[in-house]
Amino acid sequence: MKNFIYTGEYFHQTNEDYQTDDVKIGLTKNIIQRERELTGTNGPIKYEMTGVWKVYIDGVENPAIIIESICHSFFHLLRYEGNEWFNTSKIGKSSFYTCLSRGLASLNRLPNVKIEKINTI
Question: Count of H helices and E strands in the chain?
Fold first, then answer.
């Protein structure tokens, strides 16, 4: 059952000047395994989850699919075609994360929906 949605981005282990405007919104059933998969290689570029939410919707087997889809739709103008990555350069990464957090908080007000922010890894 996929009941986690997450945000994350790539970073450089040794070059503090390396910056990217790209953020991923994804879903998974195992956040630790997924972060390892996205880091992939033993190179200097690593992936880090910046936010993780556990999603419950009464009577829905894979609730994160619904919430992730809503998030993707909301940011569709920033989305790279054919994947789950978003270019935040037009609004700024901080604004992107703020909008996402507020959007998830508003969805949390719906009946039978519980979206709980958990600590990142």
Answer: 3, 5
